[in-house]
Structures are given as C-alpha cells and as structure tokens.
Design a protein that fits this description.
It contains 31 helices and 16 strands. The chain is an alpha/beta fold. Among the domains are: about 180 residues, Rossmann fold, CATH 3.40.50.300; about 60 residues, no CATH class; about 70 residues, no CATH class. The chain has a 6-stranded mixed sheet. The chain has a two-stranded antiparallel sheet with strand order 1-2. Helix 30 runs antiparallel to helix 31. The longest helix has 27 residues. It is elongated.
C-alpha cells in the first residue's frame, strides 16, 4: 500500500508542478508566430524559422488543448498563463476571419486527416463566435462521414479506428454538443454550410487536393448528403453512441489481452485512449472500467514512456504515426482528475506518487536547441519520443508537457484541499442553509449600511478588498447564518473553526498550531471560513491586566497577530472569505481589530421594523395553506413589541397566530419574554460595550440607528442612559447602572 502524502507534501508538490507549468507555458508561447497568429510546428537546431503562410495541425492541436485547460482550470480556481491565453485568443480571432483553405489541414498526411480535422473542429467549435464557421462545417462533415464509413457495419469489425482517433472524434463532437447548449441556431447554421454546393465554394484550388477532399467529405454518398443537410443534435448524439460502442469494444479487447500470459505484448496506449474516449462521452456509465484502467496504466509508464505497439495512422508511403508518450501522460492525468473523488485512498496515493515520478521524468526530457547560431538564439521545449532527436523541439509535444504539468497541479490542489477539509468541521455548499437570496437584511431602513450589500460587494472577484469580516452584536441575530448563506450562494465549502481547534495540544503549543491552521487556510480557495467564539482566545491583554501576567494566555494574541496579517492578504481577490464572529466585541484585543487584519467590522442587530415585516411575509408564505388573512393580525401583534426579535421569535409568532387556541394563549402569556433583552449587555461584565448597547436601544425603540459603537462618547452615553432610564421605567435600575458605569468606570473608555 502506497504511503499517503501529507498535507505539506501536497503543498510542496503543487508548488513545483505550478512552477513547471508556468515554465512550459513560456516555452510554448515562444512557438507563436505573431504575424500569422499561429504556432510553428517545430524548431530545429541551426535553422531559422520561416514565417508561417498557412495554418497547421500543430496550431489546432495546441488551441484545442489549451482551450480545454482554460475551462477546467477556471472551474478549479487555477490559472492559465496570460501570455498563452492571449495567443489562443489572437489565433481564434484570426481563424474566424481567415479563408478556410488556409486553416483546413492538408499536408504531409493527406487532406483532412481525422486527427488534425478533429483538433480544428474542437478548437473552433469551443468558441461560440467561431462554431458555425465554414471551416467547422467542412471539418464536421468530414468527421461525420468518417464515423459513417468506419464505425458502421462490416468496417467496424474488419477495420476499426485506433482508439486515439476515437478519442479525438469524441472530444470534437462533445465540444459541438456543449457549445450548442448556449446557441440554439448552431446546428441549423452548420447544416446550411455543410451542403455540397456551399462546401464546393471553399475547397482548395489545387485539383489534386480538391479531388481528394471531395472523396473525404463523402460527395456522392446519399447518406452523408442527407445527414449534412439535416445536421442536428440528434445526429451528433448518434455519432457519439457509435464512438462509445467502438471505444468500449477496443477497451474490452485490450483488457482481455492484459489478462493473458502474453500481456507483455499488449498495447497500453491503445487501452488508455479507448478508456479516455469513454471518459469523455459518459464517465459515470463506465466508472468501474475507467478507474480500473487508471490503476493498471499508472504502473506502466517507464522512464516517462508508455509503450505503443500500434500506430494510429500509416500513410501511403508507409510512414507511421504513434501517440507521443507525453500526450499519453496528459490524457492519463485528465482522466485521473475526473476520478479522484471515486478512488480509494491507497489508489489515490499511488496515482499521485506515480504522477510525481512521471513529472520528474518529463522535466528531464526537456530539450534546448539553438535556432540562430550567429545570434545564439535558443529555444526550449519537448520532442516526440516516437521520433526523438536532440536537435528538434515540437510545439504539439510541448503543449502536452504543459497540459500534463497543469493537470497535475490541479490534481494536487484538489487532493490538498480534500486533506485539509478532512481535518476541520466542514459543510459542503449544498447543505448550507438558508439560501442567500432568502435572507432579509436586518438593516432595511434601519439606519446602518445594508449588511448583505456590503458583504456581496466585498466578496466580489474584482473588489480588490480583503474579504475579512468581524461580525459582532448581541446573541441570536444570525451572525453565523450570514457566513453559512454566503457559502451557499458562492457554491463554496464552509469551514468552521473554534478555540478548541487552536488549543487541541494545550496552550503551550498554540503558536505552532496557529501557524499550521493558518497555513492550511491560506491553501484553501473557494471557501468561507467561520471563526466562531474566538473572543475567548483573542482577549484584550490590557483588560486581562496583572491576572494574566506570566500566563500562557498572555502570549496567544502575539502568536496570532502575524498569522492574521498574512491570512488577510490571502483574502484579497474574492477567492475566499473569512468571518470572525463574536458576541463580545469589547473583549477583543485592539491589535486584532485594527485595519490590516480584520478590515470590515459589521454590527449585526435584530431586525428593523420594516425588515421583520419582510421576514413575516416569507414565513407565512412557506406555511401550509393560505395565510394571507393572518398577515395583518401578525403585523398588529408585532406593532406592540420592540424591535428586538430574532428570526426564531418571528417564526414562533407566525405559527401561534395561525394556529390560534392554546398556542396563541401561550404566546400571549410569554410575549414579554420574547426577543433579545437589553440585559445581555451587563455594565459589570461588558463595560466597554456601551456604544453597542446604545445602537441596540435605538433599534429596540424603533428608531433609525445612528450610533457607531466604535466612536460612541462615554460622556454623551451617560446622558443618554439617564434618558433611557426615564423612557423605560421597568428597566430604570439597569440603565442607571450603565449611566454610572460610563461616568465613573475607567474601563468604559
């Protein structure tokens, strides 16, 4: 059994893979011809590259691979090199505007060879603006005819397509299918351009090429003429089913060979791409076959090479094309990415270790060639191991090295994330409640800035602010709910941390444990982090006074300060958000709440008068039956109560009013006990929270909240507490104690 990688192992391995991916991206970008907006096929030693005059299969290959990487990386919060993105965007724009004869593949391996044509269709169909171009129409017609010609009837049994070609066909057709989901006119536009008369207008002028192209496009074939004219989603799906059937047959045959005594004569490349095709078309249906093959293939890369016995193409001159080992490694890693959550821990560890060995071997295969001896201009990249020479580097192989490194970095990131989340209390977004859209902002005409709007603005990807929040206020106002609902809205995991996570090994080890926790948290993106009840750890050192002198608790805040500073930097950019939640703002150390650590301090009070009516409307709508007639009764009931009610109080009131009878009688008996009482702010235990209490009382008395708790003046507070004592005779003693505390207690300010 493979030894599991530790979190630190995964972090280090991810950093290395990302560095190698960045280096490979720069090497690949050097192949780009900025004049023609395409990539050179290769660079050879002592040969100055000539300007490109037409497209080539390598450019379509690179475009398809990088476009696919951009999509997968965007989903996993990884980044694709911006320079390479710019090259792909420029090439797409140029291809849209270019005569199709300059980009349709026709060269050393004939006119419209399946692998090159598949790359072109996949690349251009992945862009909605290019998907219905004449080049895609011609390429798609060619692929449809190939499916009809080679994957039907007797040909399927006597002359099967190599699984690599099946894989390329599957990728092209799946891209067309996916693009069509957001473009309802795609297939009708392509059908118009696929008919013979339209294709004829755009064929190459050279007679030999034109004749061969007519043949490859099925001109004169009744069935293909009908399919082209009636091109539709159903036709694409029919082609995919044929490819799936052929791929399954190929995979089954290859696996059967692996089970024989002569398994050393098998072809693992053949098996790999048969399974890659199935993974592309319907990964769930073939899950067992795919995961089993991953285990088998992971042990068969030797020295960075995967054995290939069968070429996927042989031309009329007997020249054979084999899939490069780097393309095999890239496809292997792509399949593994999709199956990571399904693999057992030992299988996953073995796969990641095998990937690490393969990564080292790929890096060692890097070539350097001097292309201009006089000026000593050199380029680096990778060369196909099937026709290796130290004097050449190939762009179409270099892109597969880049794809391998990038996919491995993503795989390590996902593994690292899973390992970190397993150590903490975690809730996936699907289980986070309530939905953000259903929240009612307590500050609807309440006087303070709207809390929900501020959180949304700051956590937006382009805000440029650190999404570090300190939520404070009396208990029961839904502070933790805000964090949980944001996780639901963003589709992010919610990680909850409490003081027990920091003192798991006792206070003596809190500095080491803090470093470990914040290292873990800064390695998480797409996550909402909730630090709950942290005031017990982040206590104000001055308030603790001499009682804590020499005790370990005195060193907790200094240990956490630098971690908070660097953690805050991680929260800039909208890829994660952190909420520190407390009911005791005044207990926190001044150094903790300073800007640069926790930037946004939000007071969360009970619902304003307008906000609680909105909550009531929602609660009544969700209850069984038509309760619209009770709404006025509930509103009348609330009119006699102060604005100190929590969500659960409003639910209880609605339920009792609708039910009537004993429930209503019980509510009437206890209504003075509902809500959050001012007494949660004790002048004896919370002398510094007088500003917060004044804001609470403004809400309690249904007034616009104007008091900023951080700027409240003790002198003004003394007078206001005296006025509150007169306004609330039932609580006179309580407010007089506060008036005395703010006037006499030095801790009050």
């Amino acid at each position: 059994m493979a030894k599991p990688l530790t979190i630190n192992d995964l972090i280090d391995a991810e950093d290395l893979a990302e560095q190698r991916a960045e280096g490979a991206a720069r090497k690949l970008t050097a192949f780009f011809d900025n004049s023609f907006k395409a990539f050179h096929i290769s660079f050879e030693a002592n040969k100055t590259p000539t300007p490109l005059l037409k497209g080539n299969a390598a450019s379509s290959h690179i475009g398809a691979v990088v476009a696919d990487l951009i999509q997968s990386c965007d989903r996993s919060s990884c980044s694709v090199d911006n320079g390479l993105r710019d090259c792909i965007d420029a090439m797409r724009t140029a291809y849209r505007e270019r005569n199709p004869t300059l980009i349709l593949p026709h060269g050393s391996f004939g006119v419209l060879p399946p692998f090159s044509t598949s790359f072109l269709v996949e690349f251009m169909a992945g862009d909605a603006a290019s998907a219905d171009s004449i080049a895609v129409a011609i390429g798609t017609r060619r692929l449809l005819f190939l499916v009809q010609e080679r994957l039907s009837g007797e040909a399927l049994a006597t002359d099967p397509l190599h699984p690599y070609l099946l894989y390329r066909l599957a990728k092209a057709f799946k891209t067309l299918e996916n693009t069509a989901k957001g473009n309802e006119h795609l297939f009708s536009n392509l059908a118009t351009k696929m008919v013979r008369t339209e294709v004829e207008k755009n064929l190459p002028s050279h007679d030999g090429d034109k004749a061969e192209m007519r043949e490859k496009l099925g001109f004169g074939n009744t069935a293909i003429e009908k399919e082209a004219k009636n091109f539709s989603l159903a036709l694409i799906q029919k082609a995919l089913r044929k490819i799936e059937q052929a791929s399954f047959s190929s995979a089954s045959a290859a696996l059967a060979w692996q089970a024989t005594p002569r398994k050393d004569r098998g072809d693992p490349t053949y098996l790999l791409f048969a399974v890659a095709s199935l993974d592309c078309i319907d990964s769930e249906r073939h899950d067992a076959l795919i995961t089993g093959t991953l285990r088998l293939i992971s042990d068969q890369f030797t020295g960075g090479t995967l054995l290939a016995r069968r070429p996927f193409k042989v031309d009329d001159k007997g020249r054979a094309l084999f899939v490069a080992s780097l393309e095999c490694a890239s496809a292997f890693m792509q399949i593994a990415l999709g199956k990571m959550s399904k693999l057992r821990h030992d299988d996953l560890s073995r796969l990641l270790r095998a990937g690490g060995e393969l990564e080292t071997e790929v890096e060692e295969q890097l070539n350097r060639v001097t292309i201009e001896a006089a000026s000593n201009v050199s380029r680096e990249g990778w060369c196909s191991d099937r026709a290796f020479t130290p004097s050449r580097i190939d762009s179409w192989v270099t892109v597969e090295a880049y794809a391998f490194f990038q996919r491995r970095a993503v795989a390590l990131r996902l593994s690292k994330r899973a390992a970190i989340l397993a150590q903490y209390s975690t809730k996936p977004p699907a289980k986070c409640q309530p939905k953000w859209e259903s929240l009612v902002d307590a500050e609807l005409d309440g006087g303070l800035p709207k809390t929900l709007d501020k959180i949304e603005r700051i956590t937006a990807p382009d805000s440029g602010e650190a999404a570090s929040f300190l939520l404070f206020g009396p208990p029961g106002t839904g502070k933790t709910t805000l964090a949980e609902s944001l996780a639901e809205k963003k589709g992010w995991d919610l990680v909850t941390l409490s003081p027990s996570d920091f003192v798991v090994d006792s206070l003596d080890h809190i500095e080491r444990r803090s470093r470990e926790i914040f290292d873990h948290m800064t390695n998480l993106d797409r996550t909402v982090l909730l630090f709950d009840e942290m005031d017990t750890l982040l206590r104000d050192r001055e308030a603790l006074g001499v009682q804590s002198a020499g005790m370990m608790i005195e060193f907790v805040v200094p240990a956490l300060l630098p971690k908070l500073q660097s953690f805050r930097d991680h929260l800039i950019g909208g890829s994660a958000a952190a909420f520190f939640v407390t009911n005791f703002y005044e207990r926190l150390d001044a150094a903790i709440i300073r800007s640069g650590r926790l930037d946004h301090h939000l007071l969360v009070l009970p619902y304003s008068e307008e906000a609680r009516l909105k909550v009531v409307e929602q609660v009544l709508d969700k209850m069984d039956g038509d309760n619209s007639s009770q709404r006025a009764e509930v509103e009348g009931y609330l009119a006699a109560l102060p604005c100190n009610l929590a969500f659960r109080d409003l639910v209880e009131i609605c339920d009792a009013v609708v039910a009537g009878g004993d429930k209503r009688a019980s509510l009437d008996f206890r209504k003075d006990k509902l809500g959050i009482p001012p007494q949660v702010y004790s002048p004896k235990t919370r002398p510094r929270s007088f500003g917060e209490l004044l804001a609470f009382m403004e809400r309690y008395d249904k007034l616009p909240v104007k008091t900023d708790p951080r700027d409240a003046s003790p002198a003004e507070a003394t007078a206001r507490f005296a006025a509150l004592a007169d306004a609330h005779p039932d609580n006179r003693d309580f407010f007089e104690q506060w008036a005395k505390a703010t006037a006499n207690d030095p801790l009050a300010w």
